[in-house]
Structures are given as C-alpha cells and as structure tokens.
Amino acid sequence: MARTERISLAQGSGGEPMQRLLRELIWPVFANPILARQEDQARLAFELQPGEQLAFTTDSFVVTPLQFPGGDIGSLAVQGTLNDLAVGGAVARYLSCGLIIEEGLPVALLRDLCLSLAKTARDAGVQVVTGDTKVVPRGAADGLFINTSGLGIIPAGINIGTHRLAAGDSLVVSGPIGEHGAAILASRQELAITGDLRSDCANLSPLIQTLLPNAGLHALRDMTRGGLNAVLHEFAEAAGATAVIDESAVPVRPAVQGLCELLGLDPLQLACEGRLLAVVAPDHAEHLLQCLQAHPMGQGAAIIGRLTPKRNVPVILNGLYGIERALPPVSGELLPRIC
Amino acid sequence: MARTERISLAQGSGGEPMQRLLRELIWPVFANPILARQEDQARLAFELQPGEQLAFTTDSFVVTPLQFPGGDIGSLAVQGTLNDLAVGGAVARYLSCGLIIEEGLPVALLRDLCLSLAKTARDAGVQVVTGDTKVVPRGAADGLFINTSGLGIIPAGINIGTHRLAAGDSLVVSGPIGEHGAAILASRQELAITGDLRSDCANLSPLIQTLLPNAGLHALRDMTRGGLNAVLHEFAEAAGATAVIDESAVPVRPAVQGLCELLGLDPLQLACEGRLLAVVAPDHAEHLLQCLQAHPMGQGAAIIGRLTPKRNVPVILNGLYGIERALPPVSGELLPRIC
Amino acid sequence: MKYVDEFRNPEAVARLVEAIRQRAAALPPRQHPWQLMEICGGHTHTIFRFGLDQLLPDNIEFIHGPGCPVCVLPQSVIDQAVALAQRPDTLLCSYGDAMRVPGHHGSLLQARADGARVQVIYSPRDALDMARRHPDTQVVFLAIGFETTAPATALAIRAAAREGLTNFCVLCHLVLIEPPLRALLADPDLRIDGFVGPGHVSLVTGNAPFEFIPAEHHKPVVISGFEPVDLLQSVLLLLEQLQQGQARIEIQYRRVATTQGNPGARAPVDDVFEPAPLAEWRGLGKLPRSGLQLRPGYQAFDATHLLPDSPAPGTLPTADSTTEADPRCRCAAVLSGKLKPGQCPLFGRECTPDTPLGALMVSSEGACAAWYQYRHQGPAHGAH
Amino acid sequence: MKYVDEFRNPEAVARLVEAIRQRAAALPPRQHPWQLMEICGGHTHTIFRFGLDQLLPDNIEFIHGPGCPVCVLPQSVIDQAVALAQRPDTLLCSYGDAMRVPGHHGSLLQARADGARVQVIYSPRDALDMARRHPDTQVVFLAIGFETTAPATALAIRAAAREGLTNFCVLCHLVLIEPPLRALLADPDLRIDGFVGPGHVSLVTGNAPFEFIPAEHHKPVVISGFEPVDLLQSVLLLLEQLQQGQARIEIQYRRVATTQGNPGARAPVDDVFEPAPLAEWRGLGKLPRSGLQLRPGYQAFDATHLLPDSPAPGTLPTADSTTEADPRCRCAAVLSGKLKPGQCPLFGRECTPDTPLGALMVSSEGACAAWYQYRHQGPAHGAH
Amino acid sequence: MCLAVPACILSISDARHCLAIADSGGVQRQIDLSCVTGDIAAEDLIGRWVLVHVGVALAVISDEEAQASLEIWSQLQDLP
Amino acid sequence: MCLAVPACILSISDARHCLAIADSGGVQRQIDLSCVTGDIAAEDLIGRWVLVHVGVALAVISDEEAQASLEIWSQLQDLP
Ligand code: SF4
Ligand code: SF4
Ligand SMILES: [Mg+2]
Ligand SMILES: [Mg+2]
Ligand SMILES: [Mg+2]
Ligand SMILES: [Mg+2]
Ligand SMILES: [Mg+2]
Ligand SMILES: [Mg+2]
Ligand SMILES: [Mg+2]
Ligand SMILES: [Mg+2]
Ligand SMILES: [Mg+2]
Ligand SMILES: [Mg+2]
C-alpha cells in the first residue's frame, strides 16, 4: 500500500496510537528536559528580580495554506507569539504549543511543520515546555491550527505601551508593509496568482532589543491582521489623537502594489507578520529610524507620519497631491474587487 | 430580518467589526484591569518566593457538542487547564484564552459560552489576562475551539509527580469514572441516546488542596482522554511497574455501565473531566481516601488497586471471579460495537 | 507599474490643475458651479482616493454617476443568488464586490455565514474551474457587470458549452450603460454640463452608447482613463468644449479606447447574449432593453431554471422588485447632482457602508459610500 | 442491569465452576482435553473478559469459532465500501465494528482519514435517518451480520421502499451461520467434542441451522446466553451430554430462544432477501448459499449499482477475492482448534489488532485478537 | 457476534411504525418493536423487557425462564 | 466600475484556448487573449502590454498613444 501516511482520529484518542504520535513525532521535535518530564504542566524554576514583570500572551494560528512563500504555520506560530511578547519589551523565555490537527493531515507535513516550529523556537532561544495535541474529524478543522502561549520577562525600567502615546509623536514602520497578506492571498488556489511575493514573517525580538534603549520610544506594535490600518486606528484611539500619514512615505514593494492594483485592494489593510509600528517622541524619531535601518530586519524602515491632536477622524492620509482624506477602518474580510 | 445573528468572517479581520466583537462581547465578559490594557501581552507583577515554582500548561478544547449535560466548552476550557495545574500541586493564577470560531456560530451561543468560561474562571479565583480571537470560514472548524493556557505557583515543599511513583503504592480514584465521555457520546445526535448522563467536569483544585498535606501522596492525574485506562498505562510506564486493578472496586455509575453495555464499550476507556487518580504510599492510602470522601467532589472515591513490581504487561485487571487479565491500552477512537 | 505610475505623476497633476483653473476662470460666470458627471464608479473611486475634487476650482464640480454595476444590482437578484447558494449541492461563485450587497434576506456574506456555499472569484474562468474540479457540485456564477465585463462571462459560457459541462450555469445580471444614461438625461431638471465617459466600457463598445448625449442633449462627453492624469486631462477637454460651446465625443483614453471599440470583445457577447426586454436597476427601476439575457441556444446555462419559481426562460429576474428599500432614500437626487450625499437624511445614520439602504452606499464605488469613507465616518463629525 | 447482573453473580459462577469440575472429572479419561467450540464471537468475548477459560478444569478447553461477522468480512467487501465512501456525493454508514477491517487499500478508518465520508452508526435506522436528513447525499449502508442482524437491515430497506427514498441503498454482506459450520465440520481431523450455540442467532432462527450437528456429526449443541452464568451452565449441559454419550440440541438461553425462533423477525428478511448463490468468507473462501442478497423487487436498494464495474444485479460481491492476505496465516488451524493463536508464526509480530493479517485478528471478537488483548501484548512477553 | 442488551419498554413513540422508547440500565433509545408484535400489541409491551440488537427488539424476555435459569445454580450445591 | 490593469504578456500558456501568462507589477496570472487576437497572433503579443479585466485582455495598449497623452501636460506650461 503506497498510501500517504495520514493522521487518524485514533491519534487523538489518548491511547496507544496517541502515545506513539507523541513519542515518535512530537516530543523528539521539541526535546527539552522540562517537556521530557511528561507531566500535565511544565514546572519552571523562574526567578523574577525586583521591578521585573512577567509577560504572558497567546495567539492561535489558522493560516491557509499551511506552507507559504517565506514561512509556514509552524514558524509563524512562534514568531507571532514572540512578537507579541517583544512589543511589550519582554524577553521571551517559554512557549506552550497546542496543536489541533484535522484527521487526514499527512504525517510528513505535520512533522515538517513541527520541525519548523521547533527550529524557530530554538533559533530564538526559547523552549516549548508544555503542549497539547488534539485530532478532530475531517471537515472539523482546516488541516492544522496551532495555538502558542508565551512567557517572557519585562526587565525593570522598561515602560512602553499605549499609555505613553501622545500627540506629536512620530510614527515609524520597520519595513515595507503588506507582504504577508499578499503572499497568503496569492497562495490561495482560487485566485491562481503567482509572483515575487514572500511573507515578511519574522521574529522581531532582535530588532526590538536594539530599539528599547531609545528613551523616546513610547509604544511598539507588530502589524498583523488588518495591517498598518488596524494598528493606526488602535493607537489613535488609545492616544485620543489622530494619526496623520504621508501616503507616499509608506513603503510598499512593487509586487504587493501590483497585487493590490489587480484585486482592487489597499496595501494598508494587508497583514504583516514581521513588521512593527514604532511610536516615538519626535526628537528621538531620527535616531530610532537609524537604529532600525542599521539592523538587517529594519532596512526598509521609514517615518510615515505623526500623531496630532484629535480631529474628526482617527486616521488621515495625506495623499500624493497634498490632499488629506480619511482612512476608514478595515470593515471586514478582504474581498477582491472587479469594479 | 429575523436572522439569527451569527459570527462573520469580518469579525476576525482585525478591523472595525472585530474591534466591535471584542468591545461588545469578549472584553466585557472577561473584564479585568490587566486585559483592559489591550496590549499584545499581559503584564503580570508576579512574585515568586524562594522554592516556589511557576507551573505552565496548555490545552485545546474541541468538544462536540459545545453544550452538554453538566457543562459546556467554556466551563471545560477553564476546568481542564486548572486541573492540569492542580495535579502538579500548583495554585492557579492566570489564564489565557484563544478562541477559534467558525463563521456562522450564533453570537448568542458564543456569548453564553464565553460567559460560562468567565464565570468558571471567576469562581476559581483566576483571571483571564490575555486572549486571541480568530474566525475561520464555515467548514474550517467545528463551531468553536478554545485553547487555554494556565499559569500557577507550586508552593515550596510540594513535590509530587511521576518521579515519586513506586511499586507498592495504592491507586485511588476520586469518584465514578467515564461520566464525561458517556455524556458526550450520548449527546451526539447520530447515536440518539438519552439518559441520566451528566459530565463530571469540575475544577479539581479545591479537592486537591485537601490532599496535598498527605505526606504519602506521590502523584495525581486528572483522567481525561483515554480515561482511567490511559492514566494507568502512563503511570505504570513512568514507574516501571505494573498496575493491578480490582475490577469490581472501580466505581461506575449504572447509566454509564448501561451505555457501555448498549454500545459495547469499556467504561475504563471513557473520558472524565473531573476525576483524578491519586497514587499514594500504601500506609497513607486510607487517610487519603477519607480526605477524598470527606469532600463533596470526592464522595465516590475508592481504592482500586496498586502498583506492583513490573510484570509482563503494564496493567492487569483482577476480574469479578479472581481471574487476572491484561488491560490493553486504548487503541484508538471509541467505536460502538454491534458484535 | 507601467501605464499607471506615469499617469499619477504629481508634476503632471499640478500642471493640469493649473491649466484647469485657468480654463475654468475663462468660463462664462454663472450662479451655480459647472457640473461634470463621471459616469463610472471607477472614476468616482479615483476622484476620492486622490482628492481630485478638492483640486478643482470652486466653479467646477464632479457629480457621481450611475456606472457601478454593484450599486445598481437590485435586491431581487441578490435574493436569487442567496436562494441558489443555499441549495445543498450548489456552489455560488461571485465577484467580491457583490458579497456585501443586501437583498431582502441579507447579503451573500450573511448567507455564507448561515451555511450557504459561496466562493469569491476573480474571473469567470475561476468559476468554470470550480465546476471542472467538482463535477458533483452545481456551480452557479453570479454574472454582473456592464459591457466591459460581459465578454469574460460570454467566453466562460462558450467554454462550458464546448466542454459539455453540465454543472456550470450563470445567474445573469449583465446590464448596458446607455439606458440608465438616457433615463437620467430625460430628467428636465438635470443640471449636468458635461460627461466624463467610462473608458473601460468604451474600449469594448466604442462611442456608440454615448452618441445620443451630444446629439440629443447637446452636452460634451470625454471618454477617460482612470488615473489622475487621465481624469484631469478629460476635465480640461470638457472645459474646452464648454468654453467653445461645443458638444461632441472626444477620447482622452486613446491608448486603449477607439471610436469603434473592440469588435473582438463584442463577438462572444453577441453570440451568447441578446438584449432582454426589461432589466431592473436599484435606484432607477425597470428600464427597457437595458440588460442582456442568454440566447435560446444557451438556455442550458441559465441558473434561473434551478430556482423554485423559475421565470420564463430568457427573461431577466424581475420578481418581487423593490427599486428602493427606503422611501426616504435620496439616491435619485444625488445621482442627478441635486444633492450631495451628506444631505440625504439617511446618510451616515441609517445608511452606512455596513448597513446600506440606498444604491449609492452599497459598493465602495458608490457616491455615498465614497463620500462616507473618505470624508466622514458618521454624522457625529458633521456634514462636511 | 436486570437480566445482566444476576447472570454475572460470582457465587453462581463459583458453584457452576465447581459443578463443571466434578462433571469433568467424571468424563472418561483421554489424552487431549475435551474441546468445546463457542461458535459465536460474543461468547469468545465473554470468555476472555471474565477469564472463564481459566476457571475450567484442565481437561476442558474452549475453541473459538467462526461466528464473528466482522472477522469473516472479505477484503473485497471493504474495498467496495471504500470505493463507495470515496464518491464525492456519498456517505457510507457503517457499524463501528467494520471500521478497522483492512481491505486491499486500507480500512474505512483510513479511507475517512484520506477524505472519504464515513459515518459510524448504531442501527440501520440511523443510516435511514441520514438519508432523510440529507436528501442530496447518497447514503450507503454497509450491511454486515448474521441472521441476528438481518432483520434490522430488512426493516430499514422496507421503510426506505415505503417512503420512496431514492438516496438510500445497501452494500449487503449478510451471511448465514450454517454454511461455515458445515465447512468446518467437514474437516475429517476436527477434534471438537461439542458446541456452544449462538443464542442471538438462535432466537431468530430457532434450532434449524444447528440440527445437522447432532444429526450428521453426532455432537451435542447447547444454545447459550452471553453472561458468565449462561456460558458455564451451557458448558455443564454439554458435559452432561458428553458424559452420557448424547448428541442433541439443548437450549440454555430459554429466556429468549426457542426451538422455532422468532418468525416475526424472519418475515421481513424473507420479504427483502433471498439466498445468494455464493458468498465469500475471509479465512474460509467461497461458500455456496451462505449469504443473502436483495430480492429482485428491492434491486433499487443495491449499492453495487453505484460501483464502476458493477457485478450483475443480485450477486454478492466476489470480484478480486483473496481469502487470506498472507500464506503463512494459520487462521484455519486456529479455527478448528488445532492451534492456539499464540502458536501462529505471525501472532503478535506481523499480525496484531492494529495491523491484522488474518481474519481472527480483525475484530476484538476474533480469537487471536481476544488472545492478544487479554493475554499478551506482543511476543516480547512470551507465548503465554 | 450480535451484541444484544435487555431493555425495558417505557413508551410507544411512534405507533404507526411500531417504535418505542426503551431503557437499558438508565439510558434510553428509540427501538423498533415490529419483530415482537406478532402475538402481542405494542402497548402491551410497555413495562416488559425485550432483547435489543442494533435498535431492533428481537425477543420478549421471559422472566419465568430467566428465574428458572438462575435457580439451577442454587440447586447445584446439592450436586453429588 | 470595471477595474482593469495593464499587464505585460510573458508567455502563451495554452495556445488552443488562447491563454497567456501576464505580469502586472510583479504578479502573474493566467489571462484570456481571445478578445485581442483578431488582428494579431497570440505569440506576437508576447512582450506587449494589454489591459486586463476579470482575467480577460480587452485591449492592446498603444504605447504611442500613451506617450502622446503624457506629452500633453509637458506642453501645458506654455498655456496662456
Ligand atoms: S445616504 Fe443612502 S439612502 Fe441616502 S442617497 Fe446615499 S445611498 Fe441613497
Ligand atoms: S495471528 Fe493472525 S494470521 Fe495468525 S492465526 Fe491469528 S489471525 Fe490468523
Ligand atoms: Mg497574542
Ligand atoms: Mg499576535
Ligand atoms: Mg501583536
Ligand atoms: Mg492536554
Ligand atoms: Mg477542510
Ligand atoms: Mg495541559
Ligand atoms: Mg488536560
Ligand atoms: Mg491532565
Ligand atoms: Mg492575537
Ligand atoms: Mg462543521
């Protein structure tokens, strides 16, 4: 029988087939002494110095397709959670990993995705210390969903967050936007689009570490679902301010722009998975930009606008011809347009 | 339009419809000051005393149907994770909550399930401090999946775990087994079975707190997927021993037994969600049993067997007529039999 | 991108704006501004996206026309599409644009959330591919659009016929640009002075659908491209005609549009379709010979056969028509330039892009939707 | 549970065991033990679950018979079921028992993991309900079983016929108990001394299928219930006959079984089915008139019509038959009591419940599977 | 083969199709009575025990015979 | 209405059905050339730019006319 070996419901049953899956595929991939104890909970001999805070975050990853140019759901599941820790100034330490597997997923694919997850974690110096594996019937999930939760330490003295946003602050992006969203859209079979599109997904922590010493840094956010648009609205609302963006200053790669022209989409709404928006006091903006541009992950960084005292809309785009217009919030699912 | 209000993909888009969902449904339900900061990560001013350990666990909940006699996916998602913390001796403190919602889920149902989750957490004295909400297309999930990760503190001096298991130890269950699995099976439309079946799902922490002072307590496990059978195999393997069970000592409620007779299933394989197996030094077993029976959640507790030096199989059942037989591990999905 | 970036050049725009300003100043003085209607929603989109209306001098004003196939889609067609999508064996394929348009029982997005099978596609060929890949599924393609979009639909139907695909059919609401323009221009109060013609319709049709405008109404038409430089050039050409008292069709979009249009694009349409006696328009009512229907030889591809109360083959769906959902709706006045969107009493209150009541709020190309998104975010911020 | 717990009573069991021991001691001495075959897998299950074989004296031994409809299911039927389940519009409904049985291209469980639609049901009526609830889905019910199970299948088919359900049909592999017993008893080397008769077949059929055993082979038969007390009583009754040199049919399971059986259960079967000329058995090959097929009036419910190379209507599936997957398989010897399961060279090595090679390892009722699960967990632990 | 369980008829759920609700050890399911209503009306089976296989009642359990069966072993102690 | 984008023909992917691969700003998709091959063979369109709407090329772009269009504004500075 030359059947592709596939995950069966039995492997989620709690019995021997599941133990075998864990023993042969899951545990070896994530091998570390804490996980190896096979208890229901990881036991961490954690130490927190005075002034340090514990950062805790969770994200589920439901990307389709599971593998895409530039990454896969495994690497993304680590990067996304590490980024959510990093934008709070935290140094990531431990991850959990919850797999929800659809019956029928090829075992080889699952292994590749878990290896990718484990490698990304290892490269980032974090351990997957606790996990859970569920198998659901065909049609009850879409191949594989991964939840990761992350634990990290925010060093004493770090104080960034939306509470520090203020009118006058400069807005800086770390690179061209929309590349993850564009790569995912193009990867979907039904649109049958190819091109020079790669997800920007990345662990932003090393980049963020270089920014934290900047005394003018007020807040960071990784731009994920809803893209730059969503973070601008979130920050404007949190600051009680209006974000004014120079449209032509926003870096967009040609292929992303091309895809958007073809499908009638706005790059500002496309997701990123390895870009951040930094908000910084105006007199520290240049220095922050230089820090970003000096790092391989921030070469395409740009100052794109500023927070201003509140106006009638939360986000304003200053267009190519100097005309301001409102940037409406993302209003739903991204639908390609023909008109 | 008298449409049932249903979750739409737009509500997972990162844009305004999603913000509205979070603002109007999710955040109010979980209301607490840490979550209210709406950062990408919870920031916890955690303090660990010397000797204390941090316990970290994760579980995804994929139960069908979403509501069942005795509970729902929301309460279960809290109880399951709290139990995984508690069996390590930890006092739970914080939870994360990752929702994966299938497009089309009635909003009222989602609200009920979230309220149930929040209430269960509140009743247990833990806060949901970080979360994530995804919406996937119809057919890409089964209504709702919930991942929770939990953080707790293991007090200094607590040392239970599989490393302490030893031949000679007594095996004690906290109550009748298989009730969750039986209730779920019966709730599935395709079998069309009704009866006096209620999930046993419960937060075991209060019960476990009464057991921890017992110096002979070696290990605890909540019996979930694979039921008592799975935990016996896990413990026997970890201890390098054989578990010998008196079949007639294992408490099984009549309706659970009835369902098993009807469908040709073994109650030892049915999941529990509020029962534990305790392993205790033989001379402390009686005392542990009394502690259990003194607590409302442990009234049906029973000593069911013991760990013995390793024999040819990991688990042996001593039957009604004194004949020993091997208890094979759960070999897959639970399939009703006609012969 | 080539043929895009050059036509957005800020310097070119600045010079064109200056030339327009000078030309406008030379127009005869009058009380109300000179009104130019851009027929096509694509132009409306460009105007708002780049703020071109704000670059124009005070005495020149854009009026946003009826040329958005989504805005004019009647609720009855959405109802039919929803009914088809709800059939258990059926997959409804739709352009993204039509997904949010409300019918009487909600939109296709809502129907999908309720369990109907709906797939967003980019090209009619994608719907055809769905039918090929899923032989056990009845694929229904919701074919909307003007003359520009009809050829792709016709080509897909011809391919299905050639292959003998029996699980592919089309719910057809293809419409023609001339009838609504005629209806609009029949209004004796219409104040519009000139028309920016829809370049992408024209490159298929040629000038024919627009010839009645100068001929019968003595108003100039300039067939325009869709980038800022195109549109501003077209405005300039219109002002020149107005200044000189001329009224003829000019083509600004010469890189693709010609007087004759593209007969190669019309041929498959003529083969597959014929004019329908009546078609319904949201906001405009029923207009004679304003739509296309399948010719008798292609009846097998008519999805209305699958509907429970299937109308006589070959007629456009007209059952249960409501041309306007709310009597307070002022779409007609906005369309004819008598009111600005913000002056409709429903604007931004009951009528928003998430809950559109009138035709012009439905698609992001609609005048009210564009106004809402780019100018306002609700009435709390005032009318301007 | 009433009629269950009383028949598991340990005191009753102890007394019965003691009586058996005394009776066995009174049997004439001989070299090899007295072998009693429990025909039915249900009895095998009880024996292993309660360890009844270990309670018997040394000179009494159970031999596990062919009476498990899952164990004897040929690979070709599974292949057909898989092929049907893979059809995009088809839902295959199966008893849980048949899900793990391997065909040539894997089991139904594997097919489902690969994307085929398979639903586990408890009753044929549940399959019928599926067809009613999903009128656009072709529901195929994999009907396996002996005479006990045939009435439920017949009732479901009659209900479907009455309702005019066109999306319900049956892949039928209903078999009869007498032909395999005849085949077994035809073996001149067979050493079995008496038979524990299958109570649940008997309560439908009455004694008829077993009458040839005392009549033609002069061996006693006791029709037995399925609880320990039932089985041990039956053993006792068999020993009495053996001691007295008798050979007749006795009924221990009198609370439900009678000499005549239940004509009310046979009536729907006779209405819907007729004997098939041949049926295939895993491990036994093809046996004449050993199965049931739909009568001509019920051909519309024959799922084999949906198969690409559909056999002539009314014949049981026999294409591509392999009666044994592996030539080293010793199922036949185990079945006839010549070998214990653990003595097969494949047992616990290549042949395990997860990867069954022979018929007797397929279902948890199979002699080898029961032996494996209750006695051993692989060869590492030795043969006993 | 042929797992069958005793069940007590609680009520007739569909008289026309001879369907009843039956209880086995505390769980209830709809079963088909049509094979056991040759000599007895469905309603008269309420409170009686039947033997159920794949949702069909195949026999009415004779309590007398059951008791007789159980008495055998109590007499066994007198066995020689 | 009628979002259309310029695209450069890269190759003929299916000559029989007149399908080509075209590039718009770095992304490629299959498009249908059959409406623009009246006067010119499909292969001769390789390297040419067309205007694409819903996957169908509706016109071959005239570069001369495009340049002429662009020259208008450069002459505008001379305007009175
Ligand atoms: S606001 Fe709505 S109702 Fe009013 S004119 Fe605009 S589209 Fe029509
Ligand atoms: S071990 Fe397998 S092959 Fe051998 S007799 Fe048993 S079932 Fe047949
Ligand atoms: Mg997060
Ligand atoms: Mg995140
Ligand atoms: Mg984030
Ligand atoms: Mg777990
Ligand atoms: Mg799927
Ligand atoms: Mg856990
Ligand atoms: Mg758990
Ligand atoms: Mg646990
Ligand atoms: Mg998140
Ligand atoms: Mg589903």
Automatic annotation (TrEMBL), chains A, B:
Family the entry assigns: Belongs to the HypE family.
SUPFAM superfamilies associated with the record: PurM C-terminal domain-like (SSF56042), PurM N-terminal domain-like (SSF55326)
Organism (species): Marinobacterium rhizophilum
Domain PurM-like N-terminal: 41-154
Name under which the protein is recorded: Hydrogenase expression/formation protein HypE
Domain PurM-like C-terminal: 167-314
Coiled-coil boundaries: none
Gene that specifies this protein: hypE
Pfam families: AIRS, AIRS_C
Domain of life the protein comes from: Bacteria
TrEMBL record, chains C, D:
Keyword annotations from UniProtKB, A to Z: Iron, Metal-binding
Record bears the keyword Metal-binding: yes
Residue stretches in coiled coil: none
Gene3D superfamilies linked: 6.10.20.100, HypD, alpha/beta domain 1
Pfam family, one: HypD
Name listed for the protein in its UniProt record: Hydrogenase maturation factor
Similarity annotation: Belongs to the HypD family.
Tagged with keyword Iron: yes
Domain of life: Bacteria
TrEMBL record, chains E, F:
InterPro entries, alphabetized: Hydrogenase_HupF/HypC (IPR001109)
Record Pfam families: HupF_HypC (PF01455)
Gene3D superfamilies hit by this protein: 2.30.30.140
Domain of life, source organism: Bacteria
Similarity section: Belongs to the HupF/HypC family.
NCBIfam families in the record: hypC_hupF
Protein name as it appears in the record: HypC/HybG/HupF family hydrogenase formation chaperone
Species annotation: Marinobacterium rhizophilum
Taxonomic lineage: Bacteria, Pseudomonadati, Pseudomonadota, Gammaproteobacteria, Oceanospirillales
Gene (name only): hypC
